[in-house]
C-alpha cells in the first residue's frame, strides 16, 4: 500500500497552516480588556536615587512587550504599574575570615532591592496583581566588578519578577 498522493499532502498541510494563522498570539495574555499598559514613575524611599532612573528605564523597555500589550500613558492605559523601592542594601555574603594579623577579605558582594508593586486594572478599578515585598538580588565580585553590575542584575531580576507575577495571575 502506498501513501497519499503528494498533492493531497500539500493541500492538507496548507489547510492546517491557514487554520493556524487564524490563531492570534498575545504575549502575556492579560485579560481581553487590558490591551494597554502604563508605568508610573518609580517612587524611591531610599537614598540611592540612581536606582529610580535605571528601574524606570527597564520597566518601560521590558514590561509591555513581555506582557503582550502596548505601552500607553497613565490616563489612557487599561492597566498601570506602580513600583515603590522601599529598601536598597549592599552586603557581603561571601568572604574569607582573617587569621591572626590578616584582615577579613570580601570575595563577593550582593545588591538587594526590595520594592512594593501593584498592577492596577483601571477598567475594573481593581488591583490585578500586587506584591507588598518583591525582593531581587544581584551579585558582583569585589575584585573585578562594581556595584553597578550587581545593581543592574538586581533590577533585571526585579522586572522579571513583576512579569512573572503578572503572568501568574491568569
How much of the sequence is in beta strands? 25-35%
The CATH superfamily name is ABC-type transport auxiliary lipoprotein component
Write the H/E string, N to C: HEEHEEEEH
Distance between the termini: 49 Å
From the 3D coordinates, which CATH architecture would you assign? Answer: 3-Layer(aba) Sandwich
Count every beta strand, where a strand is a DSSP E run of 2 or more residues: 6
Low-confidence stretches: 14-27
Helical run tally: 3
Please characterize this protein's 3D structure:
The structure is a single chain. 33% of the residues lie in helices and 35% in strands. With 170 residues, the chain is of the alpha/beta class. Strands 1, 2, 3, 4, 5 and 6 form a 6-stranded mixed β-sheet that branches. Helix 2 (50-67) runs parallel beside helix 3. The longest helix is centred in the C-terminal third of the chain and has 21 residues, at 147-167. The chain starts with 5 loop residues before the first helix and ends with a helix. The model is unreliable at 14-27 (pLDDT under 50).
Blueprint of the fold:
Layout lengths: L5 H17 L13 E4 L3 E2 L5 H18 L2 E2 L7 E18 L8 E17 L4 E16 L5 H21 L3
Parallel strand pairs: 1-3, 1-4, 2-4
Antiparallel strand pairs: 4-5, 5-6
Summarize this, please?
By secondary structure, the chain is of the alpha/beta class. Helices cover 33% and strands 35% of the residues.
Amino acid at each position: 500500500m502506498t501513501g497519499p498522493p503528494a498533492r493531497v499532502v500539500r493541500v492538507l498541510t496548507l489547510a492546517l497552516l491557514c487554520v493556524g494563522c487564524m490563531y492570534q498570539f498575545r504575549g502575556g495574555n492579560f485579560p481581553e480588556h487590558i490591551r494597554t499598559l502604563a508605568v508610573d514613575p518609580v517612587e524611591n524611599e531610599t537614598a540611592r536615587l540612581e536606582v529610580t532612573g535605571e528601574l524606570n528605564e527597564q520597566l518601560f523597555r521590558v514590561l509591555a512587550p513581555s506582557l503582550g500589550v502596548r505601552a500607553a500613558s497613565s490616563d489612557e492605559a487599561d492597566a498601570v504599574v506602580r513600583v515603590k523601592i522601599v529598601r536598597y542594601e549592599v552586603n557581603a555574603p561571601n568572604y574569607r575570615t582573617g587569621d591572626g594579623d590578616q584582615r577579613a577579605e570580601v570575595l563577593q558582594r550582593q545588591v538587594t532591592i526590595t520594592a512594593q508593586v501593584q498592577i492596577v486594572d483601571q477598567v475594573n478599578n481593581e488591583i490585578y496583581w500586587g506584591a507588598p515585598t518583591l525582593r531581587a538580588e544581584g551579585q558582583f565580585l569585589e575584585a573585578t566588578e562594581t556595584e553597578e553590575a550587581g545593581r543592574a542584575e538586581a533590577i533585571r531580576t526585579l522586572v522579571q519578577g513583576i512579569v512573572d507575577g503578572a503572568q501568574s495571575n491568569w
